[in-house]
């Protein structure tokens, strides 16, 4: 069974997320890719949902923000939506008041119980609003900064409402917060939708198979994204910043790896203990070959905990890692070697 790609649309209230959402939906439909949507609104009525194609399966999460009162429901909504409609891809449009980190947490929790793979966090930046907020600060400006930091793709919208020198200032503000994600300047979110192409690939080719664990090409928000980063990005690391499609814009990243079989407990624990300091969170479910038991593991900042579990129903063996600037290919290879050693 292949993993369902998940794409998250973030950005402050009124930035243009629903406009982008509709473009992406049309893009997928033109390629015969079945898309489903989760929309989250603060109010009791999903007004934005009125503008979405009624043929598209949609789950509405109202009267609360994913990041607080109903965050725990997101993984359940995702599970039910996928089981009922079996989409090829899922789009999540978060309320503009949400910090993406909370949503990332909910999605990675869901990855323990279903084959999903967070591919993109596209943040739509309201250019004039960011500029205005930057000059007076406050909580809203802080939230906008967090949304920008967490992005794998940045869209600076409403360029037509900015003078040329203001547009330059907005782009500088965005780049100071996130120097790695491809940045596009738009009017009404008219953007090259190639950032979503990886989900629109041939549906017969699984994103994840038993022979090929997942490889998520984009970075995603991590725990540090809700705080002001103390380090400056771009000085100590050799990365391309030109936004080309073949470059990995590694800032804060998540790696989801579905294990293909049991692993030796000592070897797995040794791998976890030698994780580089750049990996600051990990979690997952593993089957140990030498104990014939399954464990939930959680790792944070050098400490790991294993809890013996007996899952109900179908639960995948999976490991999710979140961090900054870590070598994903090396970690993938080490994980594959663990299962390969036991299967060999």
Automatic annotation (TrEMBL):
Region annotation Disordered: where it falls in the sequence: 227-247
Keyword Hydrolase belongs to the record: yes
Residue ranges of every copy of the CobW C-terminal domain listed in the record: 252-339
Keywords: Chaperone, Hydrolase, Nucleotide-binding
SMART domains: CobW_C
Catalytic activity field: GTP + H2O = GDP + phosphate + H(+)
SUPFAM superfamilies linked to this entry: Hypothetical protein YjiA, C-terminal domain (SSF90002), P-loop containing nucleoside triphosphate hydrolases (SSF52540)
Compositional bias per record (Basic and acidic residues), positions renumbered to this chain: 227-244
Family assignment from sequence similarity: Belongs to the SIMIBI class G3E GTPase family. ZNG1 subfamily.
Protein name: GTP-binding protein
Source organism of this protein record: Paenibacillus lignilyticus
